[in-house]
Amino acid sequence: MHRTVTVILVSVVGVFLTGSAGRCAEYYCDPVGGDTAGGDGSQEHPWGTLQSVLETRNGSPVTAGDRLICLDGDHGTIGGAALAGRMNTDWTTCEAQNKLKARLHGIKHWNSGGDGTAYWKFKGFKVWSDAAASAVYFRDQAGQASHHIWIEDCDVRTVVDTSHYTQDDWDALAKAGANAVYIILKGPGYFTIKNCFVSNSAYGIQVVSNHMTIQGCEFTNWVVDGLGGVGPENVLIEDSVWHARRYAPLYHSDAIDVTGTGGPYRNWTIRRCAWYDIMHAWRVNNGASWCENWLVENVLIETPGGIGVSMQDAVDCTFKNITMIKEFASAVTPGFSFPDNPDNDVHPGGNTIINSLAHGFGGAATTHCLDADTVDLATVFVDWQGRNFRPRDGSPLINAGTPTGAPADDLDGNLRDGQPDIGCYEHGASAPRVTGWRSRGDHGTAGSVWVTLPEDGVEPRAGGIRALRISVNCAVDPATVTASAVGVNARAGGDLSSRVQSATWEPGDGAILVAFHPALAEADRYTVTLAETVTAAAGGALSDRSATFGVLAGDVDGSGAVTAADVLAVREAAGKAVDVATAMKDVNCSGDVTGDDLQAVQKCVGTALPQE
User: Fold this and answer.
1) Cα dist. 544→8, 431, 437, 553 in Å?
2) For the chain, which domains are there?
């Protein structure tokens, strides 16, 4: 495996809050020492299993916006008796207190004509089904449509252990068995699976749902299709990897197979994903339907089998930095094809492929692409036979792409340079790292001004460090950015991590925003560190994730002491408007550099930070 998806499992801290104005309560379920009939759901008197609570309801007040914390142990099966008719209007969250220490035998609701269910989150469970049955199963057949189902940080398996399987077992059990995740949501849909490990099944995942999201997942040991059903509209698939069972010779093992009813398939985004050991790449050939407005970028498809990407009546679809290549021992040449379907009036067109490597491009408009049939692939990749598909030194892929329209990062989440490579990997790309730290000052009518703090730099403004904006050279997994993932240690004051009020990822600014309360205002040196659990969206910890700053009122030159040089610097800036260049000299944060700032610095002359 040359690309792994790291599932980050963080402990539960704090109380779950929702965006609604309604009540939000927290309850506890303990399958070992709890009592559903006699408990009150408190931490001191927990209920029993999650199944018993949701099925009997026990006159319980659990409602939209609440959080059920599940202690270690077996919590049974969450089925129709637990979920039917519970059409929440806000998320009800069922969450393992210790990730993967609480087990469910399944999370299932089959609506064959009755009541649907809505707004359920299940987080941190080991969802291991019995007897090769589906582990996560939601199906609308008739009646009220279910919607808003969310599965996160779970280990999902239809068969717990397949190490003893023979070929006959795989043929008879997995193929005839169930899908690990099987979802059919009619109506608005909204199914999300995030940071999950899914294994040992017929399909990796089979989903029919509008507004479907797959993020940060790994699907392994499946024998039919990696992703079946699907869509039809508003689909996001990112930062995920599929490994078929190598090989499953009786089955086609498509990466994506959409050949049932439904469609058209509109508004799909697929980025930073990889498919290995698949017999065919993508087949989207569905009745009279068609594909429209897809964005696919930084995708790796490796196949020992048949066709490449086949998308029926594809219209206005864009592919960027795709690597689609055959397995080294195979004679197949998987490429792109966009067949015209005679069963509708839509015709393929408007499709573009840039910066990509494949065995043919199906007549689409191409820019800076390379036909894999024209090169010796052993000279292209670091180790073709070893399945390391990064460009080797001297590869014809290097710097052969166009920057126009190219994604900013590659499959690993590393940044591309100004002259990007062809394919999903960038040769010599920068590893995920912190690139800068900025401190905020609130300057009255001049507003907030963020100023860069270098390593061992000093914040001289009144109020100290209220917030830091930590710039990163790649997209960061927002789920890993939490207040508990930021540590603060003061030279004189010791551990002040409790002052971290919040931490959030700001994708528009490419930075992690950390707020402090109370501020880091005492005259001291502070070391701020991001935990290793803060990772790039494509996986991997950030480097350069720790920095030390001083806070000393009036030390505008950052020397570590307030001297006559600071007085002179403020005097020279007097009367100037406050901006990034002058903000550090507005030490009282009034919005202007005035005589008041000069007097404030003069009063601090002689003060200094603690020695190293």
Assistant:
1) 20, 11, 11, 27
2) 434-604 (2.60.40.1220)
